[in-house]
Prior knowledge:
Distance between the termini: 89 Å
Shape: extended
Number of domains: 3
Structural class: alpha+beta
Order of helices and strands: HHHEEHEEHHHHHEEHEEE
Radius of gyration: 37 Å
Largest sheet: 4 strands, mixed
Amino acid sequence: MSFAGLTKADKELFNTLSEGGTFIDFLESQGNDVSSLVQPEDNGEKKEEEEATRTQIAYRDPLKKIAGGRVLQYPIDLDTDIQDYFEIQVFKYRPAGSLPRIDSSNQGSNPAGAFQPSGSYSSGSNRRGNRQNFRLQDLQSTIQLPMPPSIKDNNSVDFAGGSMSGFAAQIFGPAVTKFLSGEAMPQTEDKNLLQSIRSQATGILQGGVDLAKETLGAGFGALRNKEFRRVTQLNAIAQAVAALGVNIDVNQAITRTSGAVRNPNLELLFKGPALRNFSFTIRLTPRDPDEAKRIRMIIRVLKQHSAVKRNANIFGDAETSNFLLGTPDVFKLRYIKARTQRDIKGLNKFKTCALTSVSVDYTGEVGRFAAYEEDSQPVTTIISLSFTELTPLYDEDYAEFTSDDDVGL
């Protein structure tokens, strides 16, 4: 191989590499200090030293506030002195720090003298302040927009049909009435709380002669009913036939024969509260580069602050974990009257909400992409937002609104 055109150093480097050496070997052969380039052997001492000198620091949110936390208005010339507007404020989630109890709630106010668990309404604030600041801390961003094109609310509770056979109701009715009458429970000397409750219940059933007579009387009264006795006899026959491998639906047989069905005593019964959902569609069309930038920041705020937090930060340190995740930021929504900065009486108010869905359509109504030449910002962007309140509505929540002509929540 020809070495024409190569310097002496080039030739020595080539010879070193061809003999299985390394670039560090070549530098060392030229008299250079290569100690800083060589990785020392790891005997465990360096790792122990690093562990000893590692400093525990408080956890920091790796994300900064968009636009420094300033108010983001769209359009940029939105004049809140002459125009009603829709405000979305973003806060960090403030956990309750406690669990609800039988005698007190951590989701609202409690009577004076009752235990006040962490997370409940503060006695030092009024109802409006408690509602608007529920589970909130550390303001992250504020977005102000024109009033949405469609404004709706839907207050609902959970009802469902419940059925009970007449015989079960007749037998169990006297016991339920007795237990829910408010009558004093018989005292027991049992120190175990759960066993004491069982003993008190047994005492009511066994010690109450009137209750026993009423229950037995109700049972015997049901057994004397002609229809009940005959259906019971048909069930006994069906069970006997089932031993031969033939299954008979007694209720279906009665209906096919007579057209009658057993009365289920069906009634619509209250099952529990429900959470309210709100949906908004916002159309954004920038008129200049500054407004395009504002739109991008608004979208970034909504996306970033509705995302799940990788670090739950429960213990307040910088250690990362893949075991616990943090709650996304939460949102305060308001319809605000121009000039007054007050909620609009004729529209619903909100409890603290979670942003459960953010959908962004960058093609607008036309369904195909169109953008400005300068920054390729979409001509029209449509944002669809879905919010859900953190807690249900209760009747006492309306005590906040002292004026009868306010629609309330």
